Amino acid sequence: MCAVFGEWQFGLWPRCRFETVTPVALHDSLIRPLDAADDMVALTALIHRAYAPLGAAGMNFTAVDQTLEQTRFRVEHGHCLVAEQHGRVVGTLTLDQAYDPNVHGWARATPWFFRQDVMHLHQFAVDPALQAQGIGAALLAAAQQAAHERGARALALDTALPAAHLLAFYRRHGFAEVAQVQWDAKHYRSTVMLKALSAPPPALDDAEHRCAIVRCFFASFQARDWLAARALLRDDARMHWLASEEHFDDADAIIRVNAIYPEGWRIHVHSVEATLAGGVISVIEVFHGDQRFYASSQFTFTQGLIAFIQEIWATREDPPAWRQASILGAYRRGSAH
Fold first, then answer.
1. Residue 190 and residue 171: Cα distance in Å, rounded?
2. CATH class belonging to 207-315
3. Which stretches within the chain are classed as H helix?
4. Whole-model pTM?
5. 103: Cβ–Cβ under 8 A, 6 or more apart, which residues?
6. The domain made up of 6-196 is a member of CATH 3.40.630.30
7. Is the pLDDT of residue 100 over 90?
């Protein structure tokens, strides 16, 4: 089974779970969780100041000009740490668990952010006037400790390839490049960097990575990003629709049948789980006008790519009149989700 962290699955973490984290003193600074009393306007301004040199160099990081609402959303859906000095917040980062393919479709560029056993950090900022004093290193150490305590096998991040000083900083702190991505609307390519927190480290051929690839696959479908979906398939990948006895005998045919399917549909991923045989089983729901469909898909992999998909599709329908609690006893209707 894929690793799942109970209530924290898909990154929707209750903030109260983190308010008991012990603050850590660093010289005259304090590393602690964000508090409800902290000034979000000031936090946004701090982030803007820290990212301004990157923006001036042509790298349009989200944090360069993110709105107050974006700051609130990002910290409320993760574990935000701050560095406080003489009563003023001078640094911050936010730690997240796996993104949800139903909500964060933009993360489809890399499976690393869809792994349930890898946490990742973002909006990492230190006041420019106080950089190179160990505050950033202390925030990273606190994030690593928080991730380790919550069972994560690794900590991930991404940064712009042209930002050589940031790459060097993360390498010094034990992060190594594992992938390159091109985020939507960004003027630069990014590198995804990983630091293992336990042995064995996460790998491209382990069960959770295969689950993450399937999440990326469906997120790419929902975004109509057919190139991204195609990149997850072997050239000779095959797909079988069992109920209609249809066979699609290469990757291009698999993509084409989905790309030309009549528009207006939306995918919701309900579950993605690894099998003992090395494959992945998923359950999705598709909304298309007034119709709803379910698909159970079984994926097999070769060399880190999807090699075969077998799908069983069903149309949502009401049960017949004879199926009722008065006859069957322990029976009920209603969605489990």
1. 15
2. alpha beta
3. 40-56, 62-65, 68-76, 135-149, 164-172, 207-222, 226-231, 251-259, 325-328
4. 0.86
5. 10
6. yes
7. yes
